[in-house]
Amino acid sequence: xxxxxxxxxxxxxxxxxxxxxxxxxxxxxxxxxxxxxxxxxxxxxxxxxxxxxxxxxxxxxxxxxxxxxxxxxxxxxxxxxxxxxxxxxxxxxxxxxxxxxxxxxxxxxxxxxxxxxxxxxxxxxxxxxxxxxxxxxxxxxxxxxxxxxxxxxxxxxxxxxxxxxxxxxxxxxxxxxxxxxxxxxxxxxxxxxxxxxxxxxxxxxxxxxxxxxxxxxxxxxxxxxxxxxxxxxxxxxxxxxxxxxxxxxxx
Amino acid sequence: xxxxxxxxxxxxxxxxxxxxxxxxxxxxxxxxxxxxxxxxxxxxxxxxxxxxxxxxxxxxxxxxxxxxxxxxxxxxxxxxxxxxxxxxxxxxxxxxxxxxxxxxxxxxxxxxxxxxxxxxxxxxxxxxxxxxxxxxxxxxxxxxxxxxxxxxxxxxxxxxxxxxxxxxxxxxxxxxxxxxxxxxxxxxxxxxxxxxxxxxxxxxxxxxxxxxxxxxxxxxxxxxxxxxxxxxxxxxx
Lengths: 251, 237
What we know:
The complex is a heterodimer.
Chain A: H1 2-14, H2 16-40, H3 45-51, H4 59-92, H5 106-138, H6 149-165, H7 168-176, H8 179-198, H9 209-215, H10 223-227, H11 229-245
Chain B: E1 4-14, E2 20-29, E3 33-38, H1 44-51, E4 59-64, E5 77-80, H2 92-102, H3 107-120, H4 136-148, E6 154-158, H5 166-181, E7 185-189, H6 193-199, E8 202-207, E9 210-215, H7 222-236
Parallel strand pairs in B: 3-7, 3-8, 5-6, 6-7
Antiparallel strand pairs in B: 1-2, 1-4, 8-9
């Protein structure tokens, strides 16, 4: 496993796709949220009227609530892109043939990809929260009040949920042998999450439950509903490892 | 065959488009270079993929050093099939280090092994260049270096001269002869009959998924002999 982790870390650390996505997730989300904050405080009453409800109740809590909403969608796509690329690039670059007939089993390589992705995701999530805090302070929100700390915790927790809930993209990218298969799956899941909320599934759709819980909306999401994330991720990871175990280069 | 490094019997694996292999027996002895020649679609790459576990045979058996594929010590195998193991974002040296790790080379041996193969395949000036910036030929050379650097006991190379310039072809030839001389079993496919004749101990001809005969590497008109075999097989079919 150590060999797999070292090789996958080396590849990830040098990859342009990963660097670009890290910048988009960290800077993109944090700048978007701070831009909305600035826009609300402009002299344009119409703009303030339109954006004001989005950052209700204002201040740190309003700002972080916007960040939670953006993280749930944009973050999910960003994590799905990196995970799809990690798995599909071996097929696209033709390097998959080099991952056969070696002493490191392919499921170990797939597991190493997931572990390295998880570590990258954790770092990215921490950087995003740090960027949100820095930009919030820079935009004059003042000292962080005590009641904003739990909201920060929910934003970070949502990032973690989002990271692990993107794992179906790994399986899809493996089956489809293409980055588009993984990204397409990520987008379909995102759309289904929105539809599930509109359809009244509340927190019973595991891909939507963490965002609903983090936003602290009128919909109550219980521990059981959040716990449904675990089997979903377990199944995704198991299917991915199984696919790598039984992989054949027959197409 | 007692001295066989690789022995495959009755291999079958076909695809919907009619290509594949149909009942192939093949062996590669230690210290032997066994060449596979055939037209496009003859089944050479499929056969190599079967031997390397990239495809599972519908029927037939494979043993490598007397073991089934599930029990094979893959650290003793080196291969290049289709594309080199070269990640575009890594330098040649980083790619070779990664390849050595994946082949189970112990960490304290990796640096000297990588430097040795860089020198052997004349990659010194490209050692710190990203693989994505290399020409097709140098990328192929990098892939060959990754396949050969750990001095495998069984070497499988599919069209290894693809993209190589004449000096690269000579370097490859010398590298293979040196390893076969040290006891490695080498299975190599090629379209270049003259090149194959220079290094091979045995040449097997594939056509329509079967091995239809052999060519004498010392033969005078090997190209004519090849086409006679293929034509006879096509007519018989």
